[in-house]
Amino acid sequence: MAVTPLSLTGRALRLLSGREHSRAELERKLTRFEEEPGALAAVLDKLQAKDFINEGRVVESVLHRRAAKLGTQRIKQELQAKGLEPEAVADAVERLRASEVERAREVWRKKFGSSPVDAAERGKQMRFLASRGFGGDAIHKVVSGGDED
Q: Are residues 16 and 40 in the same domain?
C-alpha cells in the first residue's frame, strides 16, 4: 500500500492538535510543503475562519505553560517569536508585570529556598533569576528580601 503525502490542511491540523500555533508559525513550518503559490495562504485563511487558528488562545497557552517558570522578558520574546500582533504581546506583558515579583519568588524558592550567605551566592541567585527573564527590580526584591514583601 502506497503512503499518500499529507495535504497542507492535514499537516496544519496535525501541528494544531499538539498545541496552539500562530498563523506565522504555521506559515514558517508549512512553506516547504506548498506546491502551488497561494495554496498555503488559502488553507490558513480557511482554518482561521473556522477558529482553528486563534491568536488569543496562543497567548493564553504560552502564559499558562510558561508563566510559572519564566520572567516577563523571556515570555515576551517567546510571544514575539511566534509572530503575534504587538498589541496582543503588550497586553500579555502588562498582565505578567503585575505578578512578576510573586512568580520570581516562587522560582527562587524552588531553586534555592534560603537567603544567600555571601556575595558569591547572592550573585549566583541573581544571575539565575535574570537568565529566566525576570526584571532587575523583581530580582532585587526577591534575593535581598527572601520571603518578605
A: yes
